[in-house]
Amino acid sequence: MDVKIKIINRLNMQILKFNFLLVTLIMANTGSAQFVLPELKYAYDALEPHIDAMTMEIHHSKHHKAYLDNLNKATSLADAGKQRSIEDMLISVENNKSVENNGGGHYNHTLFWNILSPTPKIAPEGELANEINKSFTSLDNLKKTMNDEGLKRFGSGWVWLFINTSGQLEVASLPNQDNPLMDVAGSKRGIPILGIDVWEHAYYLKYQNKRGDFLTAIWNVVDWAAVEKNYTDAKANKLLMKKIELDGWTAFREFKKTYTPVIFPTQAGQYDELKYRINDVALKAEALSKSNIPASLQNSTVRSRLSAIKKESSKLQELIEKKKKEDQIKKTFDELQREYEELVKFLAV
User: Fold this and answer.
1) What are the CA-CA distances from residue 46 to residues 43, 118, 222 (Å)?
2) Burial class, 51, CB count within 10 angstroms (exposed 0-12 / middle 13-18 / buried 19+)
3) Domain 32-237 indexed as CATH 3.30.465.10
4) SS3 state at 240
5) In angstroms, what CA-CA distances link 39 with 36, 64, 99, 222, 279?
6) SS3 of residue 292 by DSSP
7) pLDDT tens digits, residue range 248-305?
8) What region, left, alpha or beta, does residue 266 occupy, with left being phi > 0 and alpha being psi -120 to 50 degrees?
9) Cα–chain-centroid distance for residue 50?
């Protein structure tokens, strides 16, 4: 009996060790997808009288934390083991409202806290100052433009100063927690360098319904040293801008969405999916070849691959319509796949 108990205890101990190891591995994997509430560089009352202490405390410890907690819940399983930055997560959110709202809430507020200071640099210098003058004629005019956009924003949202995909400064007002990184921003895409929160929770305790007064006051605590750093970092982050441009290349996204489902079945020698989709694949390939290639991706290699993809897709369509032998179809498909893989490899971000 004692021997049996010892064996059972030993087995239980091994099970416990295994479970502990399993939980540790899960936590290690999911930990990479977890985000944390950033600490402020100043006290909650440090921005007074422009932003009151109670608003700052509630805004940071309640509103931001709620977005953060919901983001971590939404990503803990889907992104287990993936080390993705918040920027990468936000680029394609059209079909993921949870990440759009909560990821946007976390990213936007993190940037917002960072560009505020009780001892701010009151005006930009150097390249950023020159670009502001070039795009908006003066700093005062930029402030007016952003304030006007903030006042026009119906309901909740943000006003952004960002570098667009053409490398120029631009201002945009977007709803809710949307920002220019996201595909839902439409033509207003790029990398944010300054954002102003115009949700009521950002100002209502002090300014009530006077959003304009809040927008005027906030410039007293905007730190242009932080905005200059954001500008420099954004200009240097060519990889992120390339990802945004590639995501915004609608014709490529449409071709990829249509073509990808046929790859694995066809490579496995199953042609039904390819035969079913070939007309749509050829149509999307033609549209892709005629589409406007994003500025950072325009070169002879990309154009050559697009032309080859169109050619091989049309050839494949013809072979299938004429019910040619599968070895001929397979040979042409292999050529199409090679061209597609080379394009993807070249565009890899």
Assistant:
1) 5, 6, 13
2) buried
3) no
4) helix
5) 9, 11, 22, 18, 54
6) coil
7) 999 998 999 999 999 999 999 999 999 999 999 999 999 999 999 988 788 899 999 9
8) alpha
9) 31
Strands (E), 182-320: 190-197
Task: For residue 227, give the nearest of 251, 256, 191, 202 by alpha carbon.
Answer: 191
Residue whose token pair is 């080379």: 342
Locate the domains of the chain by residue range: 32-237, 249-347
Q: What pLDDT, on the 0 to 100 scale, is given for residue 349? A: 59
Q: How confident is the model at residue 109 (pLDDT cuts 50, 70, 90)?
A: very high
CA distances to 141, 167, 188 from 133, in Å: 9, 15, 20
pLDDT of residue 203: 98
- What is the spatial distance between Cα 44 and Cα 51, in angstroms, rounded to a whole number? 9
Helix (H, G, I), strand (E, B) or coil at 161: strand
Check: CB of residue 124 under 8 Å from CB of residue 228. Answer: yes
pTM of the model: 0.80
